[in-house]
Amino acid sequence: MATHQFCTLGWLEESSRIYRANPTAKDKLKNLTVKICFRVKCDPGWGISEDIIFGAFFDRGELKTLKIFTEDEAFHEAEYLLVATPRAWKRILRKEHEFVADLMLGKIKLELGTKVKMLDIALHLNNIFDFLTQVDLQFPDEMSKDELTAYRSKMETLQRERGP
Fold first, then answer.
1. What is the per-residue pLDDT across 59-87, written as a single tens digit (0 to 9) for each?
2. CA–CA distance, 109 with 84 (Å, rounded to integer)
3. Helical (H) or strand (E) element with 161
4. C-alpha angle 11/104/84, rounded to 5°?
5. Would you give the DSSP letter of residue 60?
6. CB of 83 closer than 8 Å to CB of 39
7. Contact criterion met (CB below 8 Å) for 4 and 139
8. Is 77 helix (H, G, I), strand (E, B) or coil?
9. For the chain, how are helix, strand and coil distributed in percent, rounded to 5?
10. Please, what is the end-to-end C-alpha distance for the chain in angstroms?
């Protein structure tokens, strides 16, 4: 299995492919219709010099969109925008922390949408996080110095290409 790096197009594309090929994953989210985005706060030490927003849109469990969004796209298209540091997202994706607990404690903030409605769909988020981690996912703090340098370059290119 190929290793994919956090917040890259390759990670999202492979996660999307795996999800669509797995009827069990879709069945777990069959009652979910949501447009949700996740903001990863900038962390230059992790090679992320600007915030990155990725999102997943579902219609009754069918994955409609999984991509990197601009801020304008996220605010115009999503129902929810959750915000956290890369380290906080890593802890959630690695199942070292519980999403609901971190949301309630303010480690994950809700920038768009209401907390009451977010709590209604919060249990589905564990299934979303599960499908995002079906790949061998590498975070910047797990990279060698050379890998981190290449990752920084990849992130800068991505940010230039998506524009302001």
1. 999 999 999 999 999 999 999 999 999 99
2. 7
3. helix 145-162
4. 35
5. T
6. yes
7. no
8. helix
9. 50, 25, 25
10. 34
For residue 34, which amino acid is it? V
- Give CA–CA dist 15/163, Å, rounded: 24
- Give φ, ψ of 9 to 5 degrees: -60, -40
Q: Supply 72's token pair.
A: 């304008």
For residue 146, the SS3 value is helix
Question: Helix, strand or coil for residue 96?
Answer: coil
The structure's pTM equals: 0.94
Sequence-ordered strand ranges (E) for the chain: 3-5, 34-40, 52-59, 62-69, 80-84, 109-112, 136-138
Chain centroid to CA 55: 6
